[in-house]
Amino acid sequence: MTGTVALALSEGVPIFELAAPCAIFGPAMSDADSDWYTLQVCSPPGARVDNWFTAATPFTYDDLVVADTVVVPACHDSALEPPADLVEAVRAAAARGARVASICTGAFVLAAAGLLDGRRAATHWRHADTLAQRYREIHVDSASLYIDEGDVLTSAGKTAGLDLCLHLVRKDHGATVANQVARRLVAAPHREGHQRQYADPFPGPAVTDSLGETMAWVLEHLDQPLTVEQVARQARVSPRTLHRHFVNRTGSKPLDWLNTQRLRRAQQLLETTDLPIERVATDCGFGTAHALRRHFRDTLQTTPDAYRRTFKPDQVGI
């Protein structure tokens, strides 16, 4: 599918999320393939871009409705409430048979339009829990850089939008053309790994209720071989009740949450200390370096050593 690509602007949309679609689908890349896209930047009158620029485009949401592919970048609204006219236009475009893709919190526009119900979807890791709690019918994947569900595609934040756009080129024009476009952008044609390796490893403050106090206690005892039964005793509830409370609060089972906290502690130690991998494994409760490496591989799609090289300040090269 090539044809017309409509890029949907909304008030205050971040400029970074606009850059990748404009660079990839715009006329600057038209010599990469004779059947290149026609890019239309669609905006309500006078919409501002990141509070820096005012959009000057002849295309409106009416043009978006009849496009072949619609790309929805991040929703700038701090409450993640997308504008109703954009939601309606995206819904109408999808009903016509358009392929619809979102970048970062643009997923909230697709969700409000009902396009993600029963599907897997990605968004920025900071907003994945909000998307999952607000739209229970969506299978939110907080790890993937992007997800292709055929006629609906979603990506994580910022540079993951570049990954998604290159993926669309690869689908439409083949790997050779996608690689050519990536070279011009000095970008990887296909990036390995998950966005979880980029997520903030430092947990926020616990909620100060009984479950929050239990979660804080767990964080203080991560180096110990905790079990779900021990945590339930600390919370003065049964394991079954603990399970229910954890799923309602975090969306995760207690053991999954515990392993996530251990992994975050390991990330923190790798970023801020020179402790050997074996000591990191012990201090965060995984016990052995082998277990730590297995959790890094399964969850972050990387290794502790590679993570340290990437994120420890005195080991980051220029």
From TrEMBL:
Keywords attached to this entry: DNA-binding, Transcription, Transcription regulation
SMART domains the UniProt entry points to: HTH_ARAC
Pfam families named in the record: DJ-1_PfpI, HTH_18
A molecular function GO annotation: sequence-specific DNA binding
PROSITE patterns: HTH_ARAC_FAMILY_1 (PS00041), HTH_ARAC_FAMILY_2 (PS01124)
Taxonomy, superkingdom: Bacteria
Record-given protein name: Helix-turn-helix domain-containing protein
Species whose genome carries this gene: Amycolatopsis acidicola
InterPro entries: Class_I_gatase-like, DJ-1/PfpI, Homeodomain-like_sf, HTH_AraC, HTH_AraC-typ_CS, INH-QAR
Residues covered by the HTH araC/xylS-type domain: 212-310
